[in-house]
Write a structure and sequence with these properties.
- The chain is an alpha/beta fold.
- It has one domain (3-188): Alpha-Beta Complex (Spore Coat Polysaccharide Biosynthesis Protein SpsA, Chain A), CATH 3.90.550.
- It has helices spanning 32-40, 73-86, 104-113, 137-141, 150-154, 175-188, and strands at residues 3-9, 24-25, 28-29, 45-49, 62-65, 91-96, 117-121, 125-133, 160-162.
- A hairpin with a 3-residue loop joins strand 7 (117-121) and strand 8.
- The longest helix has 14 residues, at 73-86.
């Protein structure tokens, strides 16, 4: 399986009230955290953006603007599928640009399943990060509205559900959530040796 990693970063951040992916989070722009995880995987990676990419993205990976971003998250999922097909990938691994606590180990765990898999969110709901095989691409491309692939994932028989480390599925939708994520991530960082 050779997935395309698609980082969905085309949202309008209406609840945040500013361009949240550029906001500092524990020493980096918020959106840099999931990008670093994707790049460390060594997999082909694409950032799906709205009108323009974050200024710090530069040439770290290719990016594609979603001209239909205003119609909801589903349009970015559909674009990710289109890009995966065009590039000859047989799966897509979806990350969200506002989830700074997702780790490389979580991406590796998805890849190790070698099948359609997702992380377990509260209420046993499947959600991102998720690895979705090519056979589900038509259903993903048909999604509509401001919902991602969660409902589709829930309908897949035999879906592999993984458990994330505590707090790893935290997404940032408000300034208060950004402050909470930054605080939690500061606690995650190892202290100086001998402390």
């Amino acid at each position: 399986m050779t997935p395309l990693v698609a980082i969905l970063g085309a949202g309008r951040a209406q609840r945040f009230g500013a361009d949240k992916l550029n906001q500092p989070c524990c020493g980096k722009p918020l959106g840099q955290w999931p990008l670093d995880v994707a790049l460390a995987s060594g997999l082909d990676t694409v950032w799906i953006t709205g009108d323009r990419p974050p200024p710090w993205l530069g040439t770290q990976c290719r990016w594609v603007a979603n001209p239909q971003a205003g119609a909801g998250l589903s349009t970015s999922v559909s674009l990710a599928v289109e890009l995966a097909v065009c590039a000859g990938h047989d799966a897509v691994l979806i990350l969200l640009a506002d989830m700074p606590r997702v780790t490389g180990a979580m991406v590796s765990a998805l890849l190790d399943t070698a099948t359609t898999s997702a992380f377990r969110h509260p209420g046993d709901r499947p959600g991102v990060p998720a690895l979705i095989e090519q056979r589900h691409f038509p259903a993903m491309a048909a999604l509509s509205g401001d919902r991602g692939a969660g409902a589709l994932l829930a309908s897949i028989p035999g879906l592999v559900l993984l458990d994330a480390p505590q707090g790893a599925l935290f997404d940032v939708d408000t300034p208060a959530a950004l402050a909470a994520a930054s605080s939690a991530m500061a606690c995650d960082q190892p202290g100086p040796s001998g402390i």
